[in-house]
């Protein structure tokens, strides 16, 4: 991104990205109540836990490439350079996926609720691998925001149609899992066709072991922060699946879906702003992005807190009314996540990946430690409280870090006399 950005241009691109994510979330908003009615609460709980395990693979396979490759592709100035980034990232992701697949299968075999669904896990892992090759970061790095939004939206609408046509009863659980993961795989196919055959912005290049290793090393500091988010989310679902009932897993899973919809939209917007923030934007643009992100998180979190009491029974049915309080707690966590998101964006723009990793890691440890007693004590509500506590801790640590970094500058501005006074002295 160049220095010609203005709040208007930034707002336009952010709106395109946000609308793409919002439109694409028609899928989960329709799929969740449909599956709740077609599968029933126990089977829906099994689907939620399976997807939680598969999402661990999805996020770990990303390995931070959504940030590091976005930056690398944004700095590339030729088709061969972008092609090399594209190829090295894709093969590096494949390597990470291979490492993650075995523990995911072992997890399914160890959790009693999931042992009968090994076939669904294997099918899901295959779709995760295809989806891992989706170069959405390349579309954003090359300024193709509209194409990014359209590919994302259309892939999810196609998957939704497939879900509604093929999932009819609890015996179709495997299909339900597959269609939940199909959007990313469909988007990967569409994006590669556009990049290679339509825009001619990518070509076959030779990938070396050193190149793949370089891509992995570049993303390694980001992996910890991404993995921390995954661990915190998986800890909640797995603790409920192992220590509570399938119904409690379904209640938390429903609330988590609302939260993930918000986080998914905002994460996409925040990531798209990273090249701008890293290139030294004007103070007006920096403030516009910061307050825009914070206000959007606040609006979404407040909506979940205030609206869940009437939305849940109407949207999911009276049987899911116990998801109201878990949804309120998710809303509170999102309010706090706004602070974390803004300060994380600033830290990543300043290339302080290590700081983000440390704070995210502390938050993940807090979530893991508190989710187990929370699940035993109060089921979905207890897990929700654990996640709020972890989000509070992260926000507080980021604020303390920001205050510490600003203090030397403030001290210098107070103690150092103006330049003209030094000369006159």
From TrEMBL:
Keyword Nucleotide-binding on entry: no
Superkingdom of the source species: Bacteria
Listed transmembrane segments: 14-35, 47-70, 91-110, 116-134, 146-165, 177-199, 294-316, 322-343, 355-376, 382-400
Compartments, record wording: Cell membrane
InterPro entries associated with the record: Poly_Biosynth_Transport (IPR050833), Polysacc_synth (IPR002797)
Membrane topology: Multi-pass membrane protein
Keywords from the UniProt entry: Cell membrane, Membrane, Transmembrane, Transmembrane helix
Record carries keyword Translocase: no
Name of the protein in its database record: O-antigen/teichoic acid export membrane protein
């Amino acid at each position: 991104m160049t220095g010609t950005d203005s709040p208007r241009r930034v707002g336009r691109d952010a709106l395109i990205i946000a609308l793409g994510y919002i439109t694409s979330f028609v899928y989960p908003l329709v799929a969740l109540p449909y599956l709740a009615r077609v599968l029933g609460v126990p089977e829906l709980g099994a689907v939620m836990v399976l997807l939680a395990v598969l999402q661990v693979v999805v996020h770990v396979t990303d390995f931070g490439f959504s940030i590091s490759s976005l930056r690398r592709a944004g700095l590339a100035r030729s088709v061969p350079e972008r092609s090399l980034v594209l190829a090295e990232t894709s093969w590096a992701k494949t390597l990470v996926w291979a490492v993650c697949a075995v523990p995911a299968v072992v997890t399914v075999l160890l959790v009693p609720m999931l042992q009968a669904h090994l076939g669904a896990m294997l099918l899901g892992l295959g779709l995760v691998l295809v989806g891992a090759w989706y170069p959405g970061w390349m579309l954003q790095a090359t300024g193709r925001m509209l194409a990014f939004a359209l590919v994302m939206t259309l892939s999810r609408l196609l998957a939704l149609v497939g879900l509604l046509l093929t999932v009819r009863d609890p015996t179709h659980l495997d299909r339900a899992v597959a269609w939940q993961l199909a959007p990313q795989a469909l988007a990967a196919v569409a994006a590669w066709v556009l990049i290679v055959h339509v825009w001619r912005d990518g070509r076959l290049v030779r990938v070396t072991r050193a190149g793949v290793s370089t891509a992995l090393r570049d993303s390694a500091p980001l992996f910890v922060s991404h993995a921390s988010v995954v661990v915190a989310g998986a800890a909640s679902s797995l603790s409920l699946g192992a220590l509570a009932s399938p119904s409690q897993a379904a209640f938390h899973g429903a609330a988590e879906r609302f939260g993930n919809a918000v986080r998914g939209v905002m994460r996409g917007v925040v990531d798209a702003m990273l090249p701008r923030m890293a290139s030294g934007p004007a103070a007006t643009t920096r403030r516009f992005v910061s307050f825009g992100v914070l206000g959007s998180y606040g609006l979404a979190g407040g909506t979940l807190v205030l609206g869940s009491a009437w939305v849940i029974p109407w949207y999911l049915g009276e049987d899911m009314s116990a998801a109201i309080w878990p949804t309120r707690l998710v809303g509170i966590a999102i309010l706090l996540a706004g602070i974390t998101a803004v300060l994380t964006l600033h830290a990543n723009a300043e290339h302080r990946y290590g700081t983000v990793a440390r704070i995210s890691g502390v938050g993940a440890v807090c979530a893991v430690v508190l989710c187990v007693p929370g699940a035993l004590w109060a089921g979905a509500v207890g897990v929700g409280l654990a996640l709020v506590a972890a989000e509070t801790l992260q926000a507080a640590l980021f604020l303390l870090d920001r205050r510490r970094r600003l203090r030397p500058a403030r001290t210098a501005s107070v103690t150092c006399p103006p330049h003209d006074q030094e000369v006159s002295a």
